[in-house]
Structure formats: structure tokens, C-alpha cells
Amino acid sequence: MTTAGAHRVFSGLCVASGIGIGRAFVYRKGAPVITRRRVAHHQVSGEVERFLNTLHQARDEIRRIRHLVASDQGKELAQIFDAQLAMLDDPGIKEQTEALVRGKYYSAERAYSETLTKVKESFGNIENEYLRERVSDIADIENQVLMRLAGGEVQVLHSLRANTIVLAHDLLPSEMVRLERRQVKGVVLDVGGATSHAAIIARSLRLPTVTGAGDCLREVADGDLIVVDGNEGQVHLRPGPETERRYRSRLRRQLRRERDLEARRELPAITLDGRDITLMANVDVPTEVQVALDYGARGVGMYRTEFLYLNYRLPSEEEQFKVYSDIVEAIAPHPVVIRTLDLGGDKLSHVLESPPEANPFLGWRGIRICLDTPDLFKTQLRALLRAGTRGEVQILLPMISCLDELWRARTLLDEAKDELRQAGRAFTEHCKLGIMVEVPSVALMTDQFADEVDLLSLGTNDLTQYALAVDRGTSKVAGLYDPFHPAVLRLLKMVADSGHRKETPVSICGEMAGDPLATALLLGLGLECLSMSPGLIPEVKEVIRAISADEAEKIATECLQMRTGNEVRHHLENAIGEYLPFWHQRHH
Q1: Can you give the residue ranges of every domain in the chain?
Q2: Residue 308: what pLDDT?
Q3: pTM of the predicted protein model
Q4: Which of 142, 342, 347, 521 has the highest CB neighbour number within 10 Å of its CB?
Q5: Residue 7 catalytic?
Q6: Which member of 14, 216, 431, 509 is catalytic?
């Protein structure tokens, strides 16, 4: 039943785009009760047995969920639950829990809760979004096991009405996958980031989702009319008739636009004068592979492997080989460019000894960690080389700043090949090797680097930060971060020109590649391979198909003569409005 009240607007974080309109369903779930009881000496063996049986029951349930998700939504999305299954089977967690039962006579639920609390603390203390968001997987396992141990039932979302907006403090992955797209039109959560598994599932289900929307959950009542604006990160509680009409009109336009883009998905990304541009996808986790294919990506231009290392232990060669093989087979015959580990030592302190650093961005990270821990690096290289037998794998090295690092990395790659030969393992001998161009020293010496590698990939996010001495994560200086700064544009031009001279392919995989405002500029600078988040491909393709290469070159030449990023941006907005009349209508 709808409650009366004034229209309220809450701002949060967009984690899944789109517009959703419906009636509120507030999901308030109870937490398992953890008693501090102890068991008698003669009850210890039975308590351990009860714990192990409960793990078995939870494992069966997660396998069932995984099977349903694989059947309904694809095997890529189902892989989210592999980490949970691995955690249930983790011998360290089981041994620590059992030790607390046998040594301190804790109840099974108390022992398990304390063990997982320590695991969660080790994750939550690391200042890395990917790693912090893995806490939701631990919470999902913890909830399912503790509810069973405490004698309760694991709660599920079911029997939701049509046109429902689900609001909750958070949703665990096993809860999110149960949402029916036909009934649920949007999700509002108190917590969770863009890399959480709940967010990844929401994007896969095409469910507009906003997190961190202030006091919304405290003020909403079941049945209230809700608008979820996943494009702007806003939640409208009890909108008035005018606001509702405006958003319903936007929703109709959104649906028409999606249908139009779907109909044009197979059209080639070719300029008006016949220049063929390659559009590829950046992929963070295996679950996004199918989304990339759905949007017409011609390969994966950046596959980030960090998620493999943000668990409670380092991944084995076999685990990595399976993950890489799955994506390579799914994308074949198109190539998959896989970036080797690119984390700072502070983000790996749970598995590697790393001294505190005053400035991790300029410290022990990326290729520097890999070269200093050759066993860790060669484990990944062997897995990549083996996956190359399933399709085209191209290896990309991050954070390269000098030729010595590249030469040392190539030596370790040769050693990895020798180890595979000695072990009798099948692998590809001719795996292309490339580097990220994200440190200004490499951009300034691109001619020399282009002689040594098979491909160059421009990482404009870090290149911009290093060129302008700006950490965009620091609010006081974030406004100085500007990929349209003329100095950054000149570095991009320098790299593109070197690639053409040396006949070494150059791609761009930073956020700039997926910005339709930058598309004509990038083409004009000489970049013909753009890699971006899958959902951005259709709009970038629209710009490419609406302009000629000659026009793009003229725009780029004009931008290179400008003095500020604002001048460049203003010029591009006017130029793109000439070629795409609908641009101003959609973006202003």
C-alpha cells in the first residue's frame, strides 16, 4: 500500500545503468543468531561432525544455484559461485574452525563466525575496490552456513509482484541471481560498489541499480512509487506526476534506443570514407564475456586478471589456465589481450610481504612485483601460454617504464616456455607480447619500444595521472585530471605516429576509448583500435559511422593546437553535434 509523503531525491553510486520504475519492496532479512555457548568435552566430535555436514549442505545448495544460473543466464555468470565453492572447500578455514571447537570448546557457529570474521578483516583492510567487494562472497557463505547451524532457514526473495523495485541494505550474490527480470525493474542498496558480484549480476540482468543512496531505506515504505535512475545515480521516492511522466518518457526512449542499437549491432564500425575501426571490450571478470559478445565486440582488448589475486590465497597455474581458456574459447576466433598482474604491493599484503609505502602509485606495483617474484609471474605466464592453444592470446605487460624491465620480462617468458617443454605441456610458441603505454617515459621512447614488442596499448587513465601529476582518487585535485589536456593529446599522437612508422599495432584501452565525445579525436590522432566497457560499444560505433577519417583528422589537428582541456572539450561537443544531430538531445 502506498504511503503519502513528499517527493524525495536521494543520490548514490550508479552500478548498473538504465531507468527503472515500480513499487517498493523493502527486503529486511534477519541475521543468524550466534550464541557464545561452549560445548562439553564429550560433545566435541559431534559438534565437528555437525559443522562438516552443514558445509556439505551449503555446498549442495550453491551447486544447485550455480546450475540454475548456468542454465538460465549462461555459464559465465555462473562462475561467480566458483569462488564460494572454493571457500567452502578451503582446508585452512575448516581447520581453523575445527581447532576452535576442539581447543576452546566453541560451538560450531561461534567458531565458524570467528574464523570468517578474521578473513573478512584481512579483505576489508586493503584499500582496493576489487578486493573489498569480495567480502560479499564471504558474507554469502557465512550467511548460508550460520543460518543452517543456528537452525534457521536461508531466506530467499520470491513471490514478488510485477513492476517491483527491490530495496535492501545489501543483496548477496545468491539473492541477486534469484531476481526475476520480468517482475523486478530496479534495485536500490545501501552498500556495494561497481565491482561487487551483486553489481556484476545486476548489469548482466540489465537491472538499473543504485547503491549508497543515503537515508532512502529509512524513509521508504512497501508500495511507495520509486524511480531508479541508474544513469545519474539517483533514486526518486514518491515522485510527483510531472517527474513520473518525465521518467516514463525517458524509459520509452531508452527502450527504443536499445532496440535500435540491437538492430544495428552487427553493422561494421566503418567511417563514411571506408576506414575500418576495430572495437574491442575491456573485461574485468569472466561474467562480462557474454555481454561483450552481445554488444558486438571484435575481441577483448584488455582482460584484467586482478580478480584472480584478490582471494585469500594466490591462484594456481591450473586455476588460471581454466579461467583464461574459458574466455579465449568464448571469444575465438577473435584475439584476447590479457594483462598480467597489475596491483600494488599494498593490495597483495594478504599473500605477499610488502613494506608500507608512502606513495603506492609510484611504488612496488605491476611489472615490478612480477619481476621481483619470478615464481608468481611465471605461474601466470605458463597458464597464459597454455591457454594460447585454445585461441589467440596476446600478453600485455603493465607499468613498464624502461627497456630493461621489458627485457627481463621476456627472459622470464622464455623460462616459462622451457619449463612447459620439460613438463611435456602443450602451449603456444608464438604468443604476441605487448606493453601498456601508461608511463610518460615509454610514450617519449615509443620508437625504441615499438622495435621490441608486437603491440602497444595506451592506458590513458594512468598516462593522464602521471603526465599531469594528479591522483584522480584525491578529491582536492581530482578536478585537474583531464584526458583532454593538450599535453596528453600530444603524447597520444606521438605513440600513434611511432606505431605507424614501426608498423606496430597501437590500441587504446583507457576510459577515454569509450567516451563518444573523444571518438572522432582518437580516430584523427591515428588510433584505429579502441577497447572499452562492452556497453559503450554501440554509441562509439554510431560516432564512427557518422564521420569520415578526413574529418576526424581535421578535428584532431585543431584540438592539438588548443591550450586547455576545456577548449578541446568545447570544440569536440560542437563538432560531434554537427555529425550526430541527436547528440545534444541525449547528452544535454
Answers
A1: 8-29+156-261, 41-149
A2: 77
A3: 0.69
A4: 521
A5: no
A6: 509
